[in-house]
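Honest question from a wet-lab person: if I give you the sequences of every part of a complex, can you actually get the arrangement of the whole thing, not just the pieces? Trying it with mine:
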Amino acid sequence: MSRTETLQRILRSLQTESPDIEASALISDDGLMIASALPQHVEETRVAGMSATLLSLGNRAATELSLKTLQQVLIRGEDGYAVMVKASEGTMLLCLTTKNAKLGLIFLDVGRAADQIADVL
Amino acid sequence: MTIAYSMFERLKRLVSFDDSDVENLRSLAPAIMEIGPSLTDAFYSALASEPATAEVIDGRLEKLQKTHSQWLRELIAGDYGERYFTSRIRIGQVHVVHGIEPAFVEAVMSIIRTRAIKLLAEKFDGTADLAEKAASFIKICDLDMLLINMAYADERLERLSSFTGMKRTLIENIIRIPPDTEPARQAF
Ligand code: HEM
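Yes, you can. This is the full assembly:
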């Protein structure tokens, strides 16, 4: 199995195991999509650029506010959450969830998937 | 700074700035130094007439006049290698730090170019190779402006990158994404 296929598989099984995770993507820190399981209407280029920007800003803000190392960036909208975490050096994992998602569980599953991605990369 | 000296070499080739231009500029040096004070005067009266630049030069005039004469001397000194490149790139960076709009620097450069040509034409009345020499003078002013503009763009991106933590490649990639056609919602 190629590396891309393995990454794609990690994203797909994250979504199967956590039904509240509706979409996920692996993105490089220069804003490029590496692997994704996103709905069709989502514009991948924009989502990748935005997510990388948010995580970069989150990193800076955590340092500026003396919060030490950034662990995640969380966005809450009316319709759900976006969770962003570092996956490996230079990559990040983005997950979109339903509005009723149990965040504790989501964080655990997302963290596990990020570890698996780091092993592959 | 991410601008390499090789870029300056490429720009010189592109505007065909060659040994004959260097020769022309060296030969113009005495005449340019003679008209220098008049160029500097035009430079500073223009800066004083625009509120945004007048505010910046307030209380700094003497220092700036020295800086400008030095710039003019180097412009025609005939040495356009790596040292020249580095000092010209620095000019762009310094102006960013002072919050000066690049358009004002362009406007002032236009004054220098046009006034120098007018004064040289008066001085060399009827001399056959004036057009050639004037062209070399315009080329080096344009090259300086190119470097200043590049340094401006580079310095602005660098500051944005360092403040936000966004990698330069991320910023470059975002700039390439076509704008969203949907109107943005109020942020807060
Ligand atoms: C053709 C256009 C221009 C040229 C060639 C030029 C040249 C220079 C040079 C060589 C320096 C010194 C850089 C250094 O420290 O290494 C400088 C500094 C400066 N220039 Fe300009 N300049 C131009 C336009 C302007 C304009 C439009 C303004 C607007 C007010 C301006 C305001 C300043 C200021 C405030 C400094 C910093 C002086 C300091 O260190 O206190 N310049 N300029």
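Two things worth pointing out. The interface with chain A takes residues 163-167, 169-170, 173-174, 177, 180 of chain B (CB under 8 Å). Chain B has one domain: 5-176.
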